[in-house]
Design goal:
alpha+beta; endopeptidase fold (from Nostoc punctiforme); six-stranded antiparallel β-sheet; 4 helices
Length: about 160
């Protein structure tokens, strides 16, 4: 099965953007846009709404399911990321985007430990920080986790 196209990946990213501000709550497949959601649930619901369905999987089970189901292809570390790819780490998943078509969300104002403001350059949509942090929104891969994520790309049937 072929990979989704860049244009199809952009459909996933466009849907991900509509989830911005959804409060974090550990609810899995019961995630609801604007109401509550976690990383595995929002990714699942976003893919469904964009027209790329798969069976809901908890984050821990996603890599196994992705490969066995044939719905996703595990990318090689040297492969370039594409809009709409799933980023997976042990305990978290998100949706990659370059924000090339979304200048309003491409950066987030932050303050470093010294109190100096800076602009974070975003490269993913994510539901994270269950301890009262920001709701679903843009984030930065390297700030989220020290280890690099595994990439998965959706496969379309012929």
């Amino acid at each position: 099965m072929p990979d989704i196209s860049l244009e199809q990946g952009k459909l996933i990213v466009a849907e991900a953007k509509t989830w911005k501000g959804t409060p974090y709550m550990l609810v899995g497949g019961n995630s609801e846009k604007g109401v509550k959601g976690d990383c595995s649930g929002t990714t699942f619901k976003i893919y469904q709404a964009a027209g790329f369905p798969y069976e809901y999987q908890m984050t821990v089970n996603f890599p196994d399911y992705a490969v066995k189901s044939g719905k996703f292809r595990k990318m090689e570390p040297a492969d370039p990321k594409q809009e709409g790819d799933v980023l997976w780490w042990p305990g978290h998943m998100a949706i990659y985007t370059s924000f090339a078509d979304d200048s309003a969300n491409a950066t987030t104002p932050r303050v470093n430990k010294s109190g100096q403001p800076y602009k974070q350059m975003n490269d993913m949509w994510t539901a994270s920080n269950p301890n009262g942090g920001p709701p679903y929104g843009p984030g930065k891969i390297e700030y989220f986790r020290k280890d690099k994520p595994t990439l998965y790309r959706y496969q379309v049937s012929n």
